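Severity: low
Component: inverse-folding endpoint
Summary: output formatting inconsistent between runs
Steps to reproduce: submit the following C-alpha coordinates with default settings.
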Protein backbone atom coordinates (compact mmCIF):
# COMPACT_ATOMS: atom_id res chain seq x y z
CA UNK A 1 0.00 0.00 0.00
CA UNK A 2 1.19 3.49 -0.84
CA UNK A 3 1.03 5.57 2.35
CA UNK A 4 0.34 9.27 2.61
CA UNK A 5 2.99 11.62 3.92
CA UNK A 6 0.57 12.59 6.68
CA UNK A 7 -0.56 10.48 9.62
CA UNK A 8 -2.40 7.31 8.60
CA UNK A 9 -5.98 7.48 9.90
CA UNK A 10 -7.49 4.85 12.17
CA UNK A 11 -9.69 2.39 10.30
CA UNK A 12 -13.11 1.74 11.81
CA UNK A 13 -15.56 -0.66 10.14
CA UNK A 14 -14.08 -0.05 6.70
CA UNK A 15 -14.02 3.74 7.02
CA UNK A 16 -11.14 5.95 8.10
CA UNK A 17 -11.95 8.44 10.83
CA UNK A 18 -9.73 11.42 11.57
CA UNK A 19 -10.65 13.26 14.79
CA UNK A 20 -7.51 15.28 15.38
CA UNK A 21 -9.17 18.29 13.76
CA UNK A 22 -11.75 18.46 16.52
CA UNK A 23 -9.15 19.16 19.16
CA UNK A 24 -7.45 21.72 16.92
CA UNK A 25 -10.69 23.62 16.43
CA UNK A 26 -11.38 23.63 20.17
CA UNK A 27 -7.93 25.04 20.93
CA UNK A 28 -8.62 27.94 18.59
CA UNK A 29 -11.81 28.91 20.42
CA UNK A 30 -11.70 31.40 23.33
CA UNK A 31 -11.96 29.69 26.72
CA UNK A 32 -12.62 31.63 29.91
CA UNK A 33 -11.92 28.69 32.22
CA UNK A 34 -10.03 25.35 32.08
CA UNK A 35 -13.16 23.43 33.04
CA UNK A 36 -15.07 24.94 30.15
CA UNK A 37 -12.22 24.05 27.80
CA UNK A 38 -12.46 20.42 28.87
CA UNK A 39 -16.24 20.36 28.41
CA UNK A 40 -16.00 21.89 24.96
CA UNK A 41 -13.26 19.47 23.96
CA UNK A 42 -15.29 16.45 25.03
CA UNK A 43 -18.40 17.77 23.27
CA UNK A 44 -16.46 18.41 20.06
CA UNK A 45 -14.87 14.95 20.08
CA UNK A 46 -18.26 13.39 20.71
CA UNK A 47 -19.79 15.39 17.86
CA UNK A 48 -17.09 14.30 15.43
CA UNK A 49 -17.42 10.70 16.58
CA UNK A 50 -21.15 10.78 15.83
CA UNK A 51 -20.61 12.44 12.45
CA UNK A 52 -17.92 9.92 11.59
CA UNK A 53 -20.15 6.97 12.46
CA UNK A 54 -22.99 8.45 10.40
CA UNK A 55 -20.62 9.01 7.48
CA UNK A 56 -19.33 5.45 7.62
CA UNK A 57 -22.91 4.21 7.65
CA UNK A 58 -23.73 6.35 4.61
CA UNK A 59 -20.79 4.90 2.69
CA UNK A 60 -21.82 1.35 3.59
CA UNK A 61 -25.42 1.99 2.59
CA UNK A 62 -24.70 3.70 -0.73
CA UNK A 63 -21.66 1.77 -2.00
CA UNK A 64 -22.19 -1.99 -2.54
CA UNK A 65 -19.29 -4.00 -1.17
CA UNK A 66 -19.05 -6.23 -4.28
CA UNK A 67 -19.24 -3.44 -6.90
CA UNK A 68 -16.83 -0.71 -8.07
CA UNK A 69 -16.18 1.49 -5.09
CA UNK A 70 -16.14 5.03 -3.83
CA UNK A 71 -13.87 6.94 -1.49
CA UNK A 72 -14.81 10.23 0.18
CA UNK A 73 -13.33 12.84 2.48
CA UNK A 74 -14.47 15.84 4.53
CA UNK A 75 -12.06 18.66 5.35
CA UNK A 76 -12.52 21.83 7.35
CA UNK A 77 -10.02 24.66 6.99
CA UNK A 78 -7.65 22.30 5.22
CA UNK A 79 -7.72 19.57 7.87
CA UNK A 80 -9.26 16.24 6.91
CA UNK A 81 -11.78 15.40 9.64
CA UNK A 82 -13.13 12.20 8.14
CA UNK A 83 -12.42 9.86 5.24
CA UNK A 84 -14.10 6.61 4.30
CA UNK A 85 -14.30 4.07 1.50
CA UNK A 86 -16.18 0.98 0.36
CA UNK A 87 -16.49 -1.23 -2.71
CA UNK A 88 -13.81 -2.72 -4.93
CA UNK A 89 -10.87 -1.15 -6.71
CA UNK A 90 -10.38 -4.31 -8.80
CA UNK A 91 -13.34 -6.62 -9.41
CA UNK A 92 -11.20 -9.50 -10.67
CA UNK A 93 -8.95 -9.69 -7.61
CA UNK A 94 -11.45 -8.41 -5.05
CA UNK A 95 -9.06 -5.63 -4.00
CA UNK A 96 -11.02 -3.18 -1.85
CA UNK A 97 -11.12 0.58 -2.23
CA UNK A 98 -9.50 2.23 0.78
CA UNK A 99 -8.93 5.85 1.73
CA UNK A 100 -5.41 5.48 0.23
CA UNK A 101 -6.74 4.32 -3.16
CA UNK A 102 -6.07 6.83 -5.93
CA UNK A 103 -8.44 7.82 -8.75
CA UNK A 104 -8.42 10.02 -11.83
CA UNK A 105 -10.39 13.08 -10.69
CA UNK A 106 -11.47 13.59 -14.33
CA UNK A 107 -12.89 17.06 -15.11
CA UNK A 108 -12.33 18.25 -11.56
CA UNK A 109 -8.77 18.63 -12.92
CA UNK A 110 -9.86 21.70 -14.90
CA UNK A 111 -9.50 23.99 -11.89
CA UNK A 112 -5.77 23.29 -11.79
CA UNK A 113 -5.27 24.11 -15.47
CA UNK A 114 -7.25 27.32 -15.05
CA UNK A 115 -5.19 28.20 -11.99
CA UNK A 116 -1.96 27.65 -13.94
CA UNK A 117 -3.12 30.08 -16.63
CA UNK A 118 -4.06 32.68 -14.01
CA UNK A 119 -0.67 32.30 -12.33
CA UNK A 120 1.04 33.05 -15.65
CA UNK A 121 -1.19 36.07 -16.12
CA UNK A 122 -0.19 37.34 -12.67
CA UNK A 123 3.43 36.81 -13.72
CA UNK A 124 2.78 39.14 -16.67
CA UNK A 125 3.49 36.42 -19.22
CA UNK A 126 0.07 36.32 -20.87
CA UNK A 127 -3.37 37.90 -20.80
CA UNK A 128 -6.76 36.24 -20.88
CA UNK A 129 -7.58 38.72 -23.66
CA UNK A 130 -4.99 37.11 -25.94
CA UNK A 131 -6.25 35.07 -28.90
CA UNK A 132 -5.42 31.38 -28.73
CA UNK A 133 -3.51 31.57 -32.04
CA UNK A 134 -0.81 33.52 -30.16
CA UNK A 135 0.17 30.29 -28.43
CA UNK A 136 -1.11 27.40 -30.57
CA UNK A 137 -0.13 27.17 -34.23
CA UNK A 138 -2.14 25.77 -37.13
CA UNK A 139 -5.63 26.57 -35.86
CA UNK A 140 -8.55 27.44 -38.18
CA UNK A 141 -9.62 31.06 -38.65
CA UNK A 142 -11.33 31.08 -35.25
CA UNK A 143 -7.89 30.89 -33.63
CA UNK A 144 -7.40 34.58 -34.28
CA UNK A 145 -10.61 35.61 -32.50
CA UNK A 146 -11.17 33.06 -29.70
CA UNK A 147 -9.51 34.32 -26.51
CA UNK A 148 -8.04 32.52 -23.52
CA UNK A 149 -10.91 33.99 -21.48
CA UNK A 150 -13.43 32.26 -23.73
CA UNK A 151 -11.59 28.98 -23.39
CA UNK A 152 -11.47 29.22 -19.60
CA UNK A 153 -15.17 30.01 -19.30
CA UNK A 154 -16.44 27.63 -22.02
CA UNK A 155 -17.79 30.35 -24.30
CA UNK A 156 -15.55 29.57 -27.30
CA UNK A 157 -18.11 27.25 -28.96
CA UNK A 158 -15.25 25.00 -30.12
CA UNK A 159 -16.65 21.46 -30.52
CA UNK A 160 -15.49 18.80 -28.09
CA UNK A 161 -12.48 16.95 -29.49
CA UNK A 162 -13.98 13.50 -28.97
CA UNK A 163 -16.43 14.13 -31.82
CA UNK A 164 -13.59 14.49 -34.31
CA UNK A 165 -11.73 11.50 -32.83
CA UNK A 166 -14.89 9.43 -33.17
CA UNK A 167 -15.31 10.56 -36.77
CA UNK A 168 -11.90 9.16 -37.67
CA UNK A 169 -12.54 5.92 -35.80
CA UNK A 170 -10.55 6.53 -32.63
CA UNK A 171 -12.56 5.20 -29.71
CA UNK A 172 -12.00 5.72 -26.00
CA UNK A 173 -9.79 2.64 -25.64
CA UNK A 174 -7.67 3.50 -28.69
CA UNK A 175 -4.43 5.43 -28.34
CA UNK A 176 -4.71 9.22 -28.63
CA UNK A 177 -2.09 11.45 -27.04
CA UNK A 178 -1.98 15.21 -26.49
CA UNK A 179 -0.56 15.94 -29.95
CA UNK A 180 -3.19 13.83 -31.67
CA UNK A 181 -5.93 15.52 -29.65
CA UNK A 182 -4.66 18.99 -30.56
CA UNK A 183 -4.62 17.95 -34.23
CA UNK A 184 -8.24 16.82 -33.89
CA UNK A 185 -9.14 20.26 -32.50
CA UNK A 186 -7.29 21.91 -35.41
CA UNK A 187 -9.57 20.05 -37.83
CA UNK A 188 -12.68 21.57 -36.22
CA UNK A 189 -13.01 24.47 -38.64
CA UNK A 190 -16.57 25.42 -37.68
CA UNK A 191 -17.70 26.61 -34.27
CA UNK A 192 -20.94 25.48 -32.67
CA UNK A 193 -23.90 27.73 -33.40
CA UNK A 194 -25.08 30.22 -30.80
CA UNK A 195 -23.22 32.12 -28.14
CA UNK A 196 -22.51 31.97 -24.44
CA UNK A 197 -21.63 29.00 -22.26
CA UNK A 198 -21.20 25.57 -23.83
CA UNK A 199 -18.99 23.07 -22.05
CA UNK A 200 -16.20 21.61 -24.20
CA UNK A 201 -13.11 19.69 -23.14
CA UNK A 202 -11.28 21.11 -26.16
CA UNK A 203 -11.06 24.44 -24.35
CA UNK A 204 -8.88 23.03 -21.59
CA UNK A 205 -6.70 20.93 -23.89
CA UNK A 206 -5.87 24.21 -25.62
CA UNK A 207 -5.23 25.96 -22.29
CA UNK A 208 -2.78 23.19 -21.39
CA UNK A 209 -0.92 23.95 -24.62
CA UNK A 210 -0.84 27.63 -23.66
CA UNK A 211 0.75 26.87 -20.27
CA UNK A 212 3.39 24.75 -21.96
CA UNK A 213 4.20 27.34 -24.64
CA UNK A 214 4.51 30.20 -22.15
CA UNK A 215 6.23 28.41 -19.26
CA UNK A 216 8.54 26.16 -21.26
CA UNK A 217 7.43 23.25 -19.05
CA UNK A 218 4.97 20.45 -19.62
CA UNK A 219 1.71 21.01 -17.77
CA UNK A 220 2.44 18.03 -15.46
CA UNK A 221 5.80 19.57 -14.54
CA UNK A 222 4.34 23.06 -14.11
CA UNK A 223 1.62 21.84 -11.74
CA UNK A 224 4.13 19.82 -9.75
CA UNK A 225 6.55 22.73 -9.39
CA UNK A 226 4.07 25.56 -8.83
CA UNK A 227 1.13 23.90 -7.04
CA UNK A 228 1.50 20.30 -5.90
CA UNK A 229 4.96 20.43 -4.31
CA UNK A 230 4.62 23.87 -2.66
CA UNK A 231 1.36 22.78 -1.02
CA UNK A 232 2.60 19.30 -0.16
CA UNK A 233 -0.17 17.69 -2.21
CA UNK A 234 0.24 14.07 -3.25
CA UNK A 235 -1.09 14.61 -6.79
CA UNK A 236 0.24 13.87 -10.26
CA UNK A 237 -1.06 14.74 -13.72
CA UNK A 238 -0.70 11.41 -15.52
CA UNK A 239 -3.74 10.25 -17.53
CA UNK A 240 -4.18 6.45 -17.73
CA UNK A 241 -1.47 5.89 -15.12
CA UNK A 242 -1.52 2.36 -13.73
CA UNK A 243 -0.23 1.43 -10.27
CA UNK A 244 -1.24 -1.04 -7.54
CA UNK A 245 -2.94 1.71 -5.52
CA UNK A 246 -4.91 3.20 -8.44
CA UNK A 247 -8.45 1.87 -8.88
CA UNK A 248 -9.47 0.32 -12.19
CA UNK A 249 -12.21 1.97 -14.23
CA UNK A 250 -15.53 0.19 -14.92
CA UNK A 251 -18.32 0.93 -17.38
CA UNK A 252 -22.08 0.61 -16.84
CA UNK A 253 -22.01 -3.15 -17.52
CA UNK A 254 -19.04 -3.56 -15.12
CA UNK A 255 -16.67 -4.22 -18.03
CA UNK A 256 -13.15 -2.86 -17.56
CA UNK A 257 -12.84 0.49 -19.32
CA UNK A 258 -9.13 0.94 -19.92
CA UNK A 259 -8.69 4.35 -21.53
CA UNK A 260 -6.27 4.93 -24.37
CA UNK A 261 -6.59 8.72 -24.40
CA UNK A 262 -3.71 10.46 -22.67
CA UNK A 263 -4.59 14.08 -23.44
CA UNK A 264 -4.76 16.43 -20.47
CA UNK A 265 -5.66 19.88 -19.24
CA UNK A 266 -9.28 18.82 -18.91
CA UNK A 267 -8.65 15.62 -16.96
CA UNK A 268 -5.95 13.26 -15.75
CA UNK A 269 -4.90 14.31 -12.23
CA UNK A 270 -4.47 11.25 -10.01
CA UNK A 271 -4.95 11.52 -6.24
CA UNK A 272 -7.11 10.55 -3.26
CA UNK A 273 -10.22 12.38 -2.01
CA UNK A 274 -8.32 13.40 1.14
CA UNK A 275 -5.64 15.21 -0.86
CA UNK A 276 -8.26 16.95 -2.99
CA UNK A 277 -10.19 17.94 0.14
CA UNK A 278 -7.05 19.54 1.60
CA UNK A 279 -6.61 21.51 -1.62
CA UNK A 280 -10.15 22.89 -1.21
CA UNK A 281 -8.97 25.24 1.53
CA UNK A 282 -7.13 27.25 -1.13
CA UNK A 283 -10.51 28.76 -1.97
CA UNK A 284 -10.72 30.15 1.57
CA UNK A 285 -7.22 30.96 2.69
CA UNK A 286 -4.81 30.27 -0.13
CA UNK A 287 -2.53 32.51 -2.14
CA UNK A 288 -2.46 30.28 -5.22
CA UNK A 289 -6.22 30.76 -5.61
CA UNK A 290 -6.99 34.49 -5.71
CA UNK A 291 -9.88 36.80 -6.56
CA UNK A 292 -9.30 36.32 -10.29
CA UNK A 293 -11.12 33.01 -9.86
CA UNK A 294 -14.38 34.89 -10.51
CA UNK A 295 -13.19 37.50 -13.03
CA UNK A 296 -15.11 36.95 -16.26
CA UNK A 297 -17.28 34.17 -14.82
CA UNK A 298 -20.31 33.52 -17.02
CA UNK A 299 -23.79 32.31 -16.18
CA UNK A 300 -24.09 28.66 -17.15
CA UNK A 301 -27.49 28.03 -15.56
CA UNK A 302 -29.97 30.93 -15.85
CA UNK A 303 -32.48 29.10 -13.64
CA UNK A 304 -30.32 29.22 -10.51
CA UNK A 305 -27.79 31.91 -11.41
CA UNK A 306 -24.82 29.55 -11.21
CA UNK A 307 -21.70 30.81 -13.00
CA UNK A 308 -18.62 29.15 -14.43
CA UNK A 309 -15.38 30.72 -13.25
CA UNK A 310 -11.80 29.50 -13.52
CA UNK A 311 -12.51 25.79 -13.92
CA UNK A 312 -15.14 25.94 -11.19
CA UNK A 313 -18.92 26.42 -10.89
CA UNK A 314 -19.87 29.23 -8.51
CA UNK A 315 -23.32 29.25 -6.92
CA UNK A 316 -25.19 32.44 -6.06
CA UNK A 317 -24.45 31.95 -2.36
CA UNK A 318 -20.71 31.56 -2.98
CA UNK A 319 -20.47 27.78 -2.91
CA UNK A 320 -18.17 26.02 -5.37
CA UNK A 321 -18.56 22.72 -7.16
CA UNK A 322 -17.42 20.63 -10.10
CA UNK A 323 -18.04 17.06 -11.15
CA UNK A 324 -16.03 14.87 -13.48
CA UNK A 325 -16.15 11.72 -15.54
CA UNK A 326 -13.45 9.96 -17.51
CA UNK A 327 -14.43 6.44 -18.46
CA UNK A 328 -15.62 4.81 -15.26
CA UNK A 329 -13.91 7.35 -13.03
CA UNK A 330 -16.38 9.84 -11.61
CA UNK A 331 -15.78 12.55 -9.04
CA UNK A 332 -17.54 15.26 -7.05
CA UNK A 333 -15.84 18.30 -5.51
CA UNK A 334 -17.78 20.81 -3.38
CA UNK A 335 -16.80 23.73 -1.17
CA UNK A 336 -19.31 25.33 1.22
CA UNK A 337 -20.47 28.94 0.68
CA UNK A 338 -18.36 30.11 3.63
CA UNK A 339 -15.40 28.23 2.04
CA UNK A 340 -14.56 26.45 5.31
CA UNK A 341 -15.76 22.93 4.41
CA UNK A 342 -14.79 20.77 1.44
CA UNK A 343 -16.36 17.42 0.59
CA UNK A 344 -14.93 15.18 -2.12
CA UNK A 345 -16.10 11.88 -3.59
CA UNK A 346 -14.28 9.69 -6.12
CA UNK A 347 -15.55 6.43 -7.59
CA UNK A 348 -14.35 3.93 -10.18
CA UNK A 349 -17.70 2.84 -11.59
CA UNK A 350 -19.74 5.06 -13.92
CA UNK A 351 -22.99 4.05 -12.20
CA UNK A 352 -21.66 4.58 -8.67
CA UNK A 353 -23.81 6.88 -6.54
CA UNK A 354 -21.38 9.80 -6.14
CA UNK A 355 -24.17 12.40 -5.97
CA UNK A 356 -26.12 10.52 -3.32
CA UNK A 357 -23.00 10.02 -1.22
CA UNK A 358 -21.98 13.67 -1.50
CA UNK A 359 -25.49 14.78 -0.50
CA UNK A 360 -25.50 12.42 2.47
CA UNK A 361 -22.18 13.77 3.68
CA UNK A 362 -23.36 17.38 3.37
CA UNK A 363 -26.40 16.49 5.47
CA UNK A 364 -24.03 15.23 8.17
CA UNK A 365 -21.22 17.81 7.98
CA UNK A 366 -22.77 20.86 6.33
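Observed output (run 2 of 3):
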Amino acid sequence: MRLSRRAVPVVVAGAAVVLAGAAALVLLAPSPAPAEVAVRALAAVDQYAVQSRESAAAVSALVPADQPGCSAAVARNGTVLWAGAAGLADLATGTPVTTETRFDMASVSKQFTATAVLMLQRDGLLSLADPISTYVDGLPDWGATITLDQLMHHTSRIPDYWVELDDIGIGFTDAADQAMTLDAIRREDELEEGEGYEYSNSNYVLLAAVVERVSGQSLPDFLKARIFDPLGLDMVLAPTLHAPDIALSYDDDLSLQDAGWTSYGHTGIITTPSELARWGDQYRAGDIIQDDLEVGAVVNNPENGERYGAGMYITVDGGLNHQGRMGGFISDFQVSPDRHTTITVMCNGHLSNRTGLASALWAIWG
